[in-house]
Design brief:
Helices cover 33% and strands 22% of the residues. The protein has seven helices and ten strands. It has helices at residues 7-19, 47-54, 94-111, 176-179, 184-199, 212-224, 226-229, and strands at 3-5, 28-34, 39-41, 61-63, 71-72, 76-84, 117-118, 147-148, 155-164, 167-175. Strand 8 and strand 9 (155-164) form a beta hairpin. The model is unreliable at 125-133 (pLDDT under 50).
């Protein structure tokens, strides 16, 4: 079920879902919100640069375990998906998984009357993908297979990824202001159904288990540390 938490707790729960979930062979998905206006930024980004660019306080900034750029969470719909390492979608073709994820999201939005366009990958003269630039502000720098508005190309949805020995973590965001007033609860229902379909798995709803909060506490300590946040 949806939860509202601090930025560091939200990141800790996502990291726990990747590294220490009680049923590691199952894909897992959650949607969540934030207890304050905030930004997250990519694992490899410089904290001082992010602070300068956003003008936000330390309490409103949090480093993600995934890559990518700065994401503004002041008016967005946020989710996390973990695909276990044993699943083919967590393998070498993660760009195809990224494309499938946003295809599922585009279908879910379309079911609610929202048109989107998937951004095509850029190519050089030899037809190969161009190298990625150093990430900055995520929603100002669309990448291949992100979702945009057909009328003006504004980026609606993107996601950041982390692949580890446990699997693949995708942390995604939909900008509410670019989508408008839709039934967000229905989007969650349809989106998770589409995700289950492309992963070839059944959909099972779980309440938050007793003791889970204690389980992700170790990850909260890691993410709250100055070593994680301020490098």
């Amino acid at each position: 079920p949806p939860r509202e938490n601090t930025p560091t707790t939200n990141m800790a729960i996502d990291l726990w879902m990747l590294r220490a979930f009680a049923r590691p062979q199952c894909p897992r998905f959650r949607h969540y919100s934030w207890d304050r206006p905030c930004y997250t930024f990519g694992y490899g980004q410089d904290f001082a640069w992010v602070s300068e660019q956003t003008g936000a306080t330390d309490e409103a900034l949090c480093r993600r375990p995934t890559g990518g750029g700065v994401v503004d969470h002041r008016d967005d719909w946020t989710y996390a998906l973990v695909i276990p390492a044993s699943h083919p979608a967590a393998g070498s073709e993660i760009r195809a998984t990224y494309q499938a994820l946003h295809g599922a999201l585009g279908e879910a939005l379309f079911s609610l009357g929202i048109q989107t366009k998937m951004i095509a990958p850029p190519s050089n003269s030899e037809g190969t993908d161009l190298p990625s630039a150093i990430p900055g502000k995520c929603f100002e720098e669309p990448v291949a297979h992100d979702l945009s508005r057909p009328e003006d190309g504004s980026k609606i949805a993107g996601a950041a990824m982390k692949r580890s020995r446990e699997g693949l973590l995708l942390q995604g965001s939909v900008q509410k202001g670019l989508v408008g007033n839709i039934a967000w609860g229905q989007l969650a229902e349809t989106f998770t159904e589409r995700i289950a379909a492309f992963l070839g798995t059944d959909l099972e709803r779980l309440d938050w288990g007793n003791g889970w909060e204690k389980d992700w506490q170790q990850f909260s300590m890691e993410i709250e540390s100055a070593t994680w946040q301020h490098r």
